[in-house]
Amino acid sequence: MHDDSTNNQGYEHMLDFQMSWVMRVAASNEIKEKNPILHKRCFDILMKLIGKTNLDQVEVISVKVMKQWKRIDVHAEIVISCSGHNEKHLIVIEDKAYTKIHDDQLNRYEDIINNKYDWDDALKAFEKHFWVITFFGYDKTGDYEKDYWILKSMCDEANADWQLLSYDDILDDYTPTGSEHFDDFWINEW
Q1: Domain boundaries defined on the chain
Q2: Averaged in consecutive runs of 10 residues, what is the pLDDT profile of the chain (190 residues)?
Q3: Beta-carbon contacts of residue 59 (< 8 Å; ≥ 6 apart)
Q4: pTM (2 decimals)?
C-alpha cells in the first residue's frame, strides 16, 4: 500500500473507513450467514460504541453512516431492537491517529450535531454517543502512552460527554475472523 497523505491523514481516513465498514457489517444478515465470526466481532464493536452489554436480545435493524459530513469524521444513525423494542443511537466519531484535538473541534462538532438532531422531531429520539478514537495505546509498561492521557484530558474538558477509546481497547478477541479486510486492519500488525 502506498499513501501520499501528509500529517498521518491517511491513517485517519483508514480508521474512518474501517469504523464505517464495521458498523455496516454488524447490520448485514448476509455476512452473518456467510461469516458469523466476522459478524459477531463487528457486532461486538458496535455494541461497545452504543454502550450495550446485555446482548442476548439485541438485533441491528439499520445502520446509516456518514463520513466527513461538515468535517466530522464519522457519524452513524443506528437502529437496534432490544427484546422487541426499537432504540435509536447516534454515534459521532472523531479519529485521532497520532494527532491532537485542535481548534475546539469537539465543542464545534457537538454544536453541529445538536443543531441537526435537537431541532428535528424525527431525529430527537437518537441517544447520542460521542467518541474520540485514537491509535495512542499502551506503552511498554502496560499503561497508556502520554499522548493518550493528553487526549483524555481534552475529551474531559469538552462540553459533551466525549469519551476516548484506544484502538487497543476496541477489540476484545484477537482470533482471526477469516476476513482479510478485518484481520489485516484489526488483528495483524501493520
Answers
A1: 9-183
A2: 45 86 96 96 95 87 94 95 93 86 89 87 87 87 88 88 90 89 82
A3: 80, 81
A4: 0.88
